Amino acid sequence: MLNKTLSRIDAFIDWSGRTVSWLSLLLVLVTFTVVVLRYAFDYGMIALQETSTYLHATVFLVGMAYTLQQDAHVRVDIFYSRCSRLSKAWIDLCGTLFLLLPFMLFISWSSWQYILDSWSVLEGSREAGGLPAVFLLKSLILVMTTLLSLQALCQVARHMQLIIKHKTSTD
Question: Residue 34 contacts by C-beta under 8 Å, 6 or more apart in sequence?
Fold first, then answer.
């Protein structure tokens, strides 16, 4: 049952990461369009410029859990790369339990009112001609903390399984 749940969460994180990665292509196209319009035609569109900001934020905020799943986050590998599989499981378990999950809880808690305030007025762009859905962009903060926490919990379960398996095999 646990492995089935973990697999479903992993599959959802994988799907969301791969899906949002396509926004990178759209981000390049939008940014290219902004540059061409500005420098070739001396024409600027606030909404188009803000679209690149929205796309950039979406790729990073939604893609963080996928990056964690793929073990592609930046880390200092001076000692970690030399560790055994069991030592790596302990390091990752402790890092997740004592750093990542508390940090996600803190971000969720500290951003909650910020996001609610934005939703209460259906906050839009401060710029004339800007995008009207800043409240949706701010909501991605909670999407990020939820997805990253789910992926972290999957990794905690998997690391604990590895540690328990190793302990039972050595006893």
Answer: 44, 45, 48, 49, 52
Burial of 151 (0-12, 13-18, 19+ CB in 10 A): buried
Q: How far apart are the first and last CA of the chain?
A: 26
Residue ranges of domains in the chain: 2-170
Which ranges of the chain does DSSP label H, i.e. alpha helix? 2-41, 46-69, 85-95, 101-120, 134-170
pLDDT in tens, 103-135: 999 999 999 999 999 999 999 888 888 888 999
Q: 147 Cβ partners below 8 Å, 6+ apart?
A: 13, 16, 62, 64, 65
**pLDDT tens across 88-106, in order?**
899 999 999 999 999 999 9
pTM equals 0.87
Distance CA 122, CA 43 (A): 29
